[in-house]
Specification:
Layout: H1 2-26, H2 28-34, E1 40-41, E2 59-69, E3 77-87, E4 91-97, E5 102-108, E6 111-112, E7 114-118, E8 121-125, E9 135-144, E10 149-151, E11 158-164, E12 167-171, E13 193-200, E14 204-207, E15 210-217, E16 221-227, E17 239-242, E18 244-250, E19 256-262, H3 266-273, H4 276-287, E20 294-295, E21 297-300, E22 314-317, H5 325-340, E23 346-347, H6 353-370, H7 376-394, H8 412-425, H9 427-440, E24 445-446, H10 448-459, H11 464-472
Parallel strand pairs: 1-4, 2-13, 19-20, 21-22, 23-24
Antiparallel strand pairs: 2-3, 3-9, 4-8, 5-6, 5-9, 7-8, 10-11, 11-12, 13-16, 14-17, 15-16, 18-19
Bound molecules: zinc ion (ZN).
Zinc ion (ZN) binds at residues 334, 338, 357, 360.
EC number: 3.4.11.-
Protein name: M1 family metallopeptidase
Keywords: Aminopeptidase, Hydrolase, Protease
Length: 493
């Protein structure tokens, strides 16, 4: 990618030089055409159907560096975010997504910039405009507020900073990263991260990817530096701070495993955490090789209702690992599946969420059925019976409504679409589709249209006429192979 970008940039510079020469030869009219593009404001959002102001236009983030000088739970602390970006237009000003926190100085390329806040938009006007194609560095200093939390009335419930008795974990999904650091807070805008956090000496900090440095600091404090190794969507950034034990081992294919567990939960959660190598091997057989170098389970000492697939380190609330084996494995396999689909294969827009949650639920149920859990077919029959009601209440699988984004339609309701596809094309062809799609979009974002196109190609037949009514229709199509399955009538009001 880097080579490609460089060569494109060279081509653009060459073109600009050529135009300048032409202008010199042909007079003032041509000069205006050849002179630099007039700088204009970058768009305030990417226009996502669910969250139009999330993400920002006019530039691409190349790298985030987050600096946190952590003090104590629920206590504000000094923070800074340094963003390296490339302008995709000539910019007079640009936005970051940033909610709450106390903003201090913002610089662009080292010079103080003017700022204005409007809702969750931080609008930055640099001292001089930024030419198209040029790299620039934005540094935002602020006092972070680790009590910031928001609520959704769907499966997400609370998101943002999630306090623990001695520290914090993060739950940024869907768009709560903006409460934690200024960013392009949209799943399509991924970039590598360096996270540097200083803590009291008796605490441990863990973020996505690899620990690159642990340094003693004055006053008995410790500075931890993590490198994400791969681009991460803002919703999948993790930072756990607290009294944690790090438990290292090696999984299949040499995947480095590191569980992050509060001291008193190490023994009670061990029997289920130890199943990760089995889960990795099972999922590799379904979806191909694991997409990252490392993985781990972060046990959250919180009452959080749901787990989160933060990249290379899934957050599981402690209750998920203290119940039955069947329940624990469903949660563990669900979040691990997301490392392939949702994390490595990312979604292009929030309307594509069915791809991420539908697949995670599909493999969670498939695994569970083979390991003592409920019948997959019975669960899908129940989902089928409810499907028109869910379409009515929550929107079709690939056409969610914003308040109902994380409702059951995106989970069992979307696993049902994949089940229907498997019933139509047969298990062997379905597996070929899945592996082809995951391989093709590994490390990239993907859309519903991409899935339909890849499925059609892998199956050797145009599946759009089959999949589109399932994904977008107002009513549920017949289930292939199950003429006796019936959809219950919609109850309104
Ligand atoms: Zn999920």
């Amino acid at each position: 990618m880097r080579t490609y970008r460089t060569s494109r940039r060279r081509a653009r510079l060459a073109l600009a030089a050529a135009l300048t020469v032409t202008a010199a030869l042909t007079g003032p009219a041509a000069v205006s055409r050849a002179s630099a593009e007039t700088p204009t404001p970058g768009a305030a959002g990417l226009g996502d159907p669910m969250f139009p102001l999330d993400g920002n236009g006019g530039y691409t983030v190349r790298h985030y560096k987050l600096d946190f000088d952590w003090r104590a739970p629920k206590t504000p602390f000094p923070a800074a975010t340094t963003i390296r970006a490339t302008a995709t237009q000539a910019l007079s000003r640009f936005d970051l997504d940033f909610a709450g926190n106390e903003l201090h100085a913002v610089t662009v390329n080292g010079s103080p910039a003017q700022t204005r806040r409007d809702g969750d938009e931080l609008i930055i006007t640099p001292k001089s405009p930024i030419p198209r194609g040029s790299s620039f560095t934005v540094k935002v200093g602020y006092t972070a507020d680790p009590t910031q939390i928001r609520h959704r009335d769907d499966a997400i419930e609370d998101y943002g900073w999630i306090p623990t008795p001695d520290g914090t974990v993060l739950y940024p999904q869907p768009n709560g990263a903006k409460m934690i650091f200024p960013s392009n807070d949209h799943p399509s805008a991924r970039a590598p991260f360096t996270v540097r956090v200083t803590t009291p000496g008796d605490l441990t900090a863990v973020s996505n990817g690899r620990l690159v440095d642990r340094a003693e600091r004055p006053g008995g404090r410790v500075r931890w530096t993590y490198d994400s190794e791969q681009p991460v969507a803002t919703q999948l950034v993790q930072l756990a701070i607290g009294k944690y034990r790090l438990i290292d081992s090696t999984g299949p294919d040499g995947v480095a495993l590191r569980d992050v567990v509060p001291d008193d939960l190490v023994a009670p959660t061990k029997q289920y955490r130890d199943l990760t190598p089995d889960h990795l091997a099972w999922l590799r057989a379904q979806l191909g090789s694991y997409p990252f170098k490392r993985y781990g389970v972060l046990v959250g000492d919180t009452d959080l209702g749901v787990a989160l697939e933060t990249q290379t380190l899934s957050l599981l609330p402690k209750a998920d690992l203290l119940g039955t084996r069947v329940d624990a494995e469903r949660n563990l396999v669900h979040e691990l599946t997301h490392q392939w689909i949702g994390d490595s294969v990312g979604i292009a827009t929030w309307s594509d969420l069915w791809l991420s949650e539908g697949h995670a639920r599909f493999y969670e149920r498939l695994y569970s059925e083979a390991h003592g859990g409920d019948s997959f077919e019975a669960a899908m029959r129940t989902a089928y019976e409810n499907h028109d009601q869910w379409r009515h209440d929550y929107g079709a699988p690939a056409e969610p409504t914003e308040p109902n984004l994380f409702k059951r339609m995106r989970y069992d309701g979307s696993a049902l679409v994949l089940y229907a596809l498997r019933e139509k094309v047969g298990t062997e062809t379905f597996q070929r589709i899945e592996r082809a799609w995951v391989a093709k979009y590994r490390g990239r974002t993907t859309s519903t249209a991409d899935y339909i196109a890849t499925a059609s190609k892998a199956a050797g037949q145009d599946l759009s006429g089959f999949l589109r009514p399932w994904l977008y229709g107002a009513t549920t199509p017949p289930m292939p192979g199950h003429p006796d399955w019936v959809v219950r009538p919609v109850v309104t009001g």
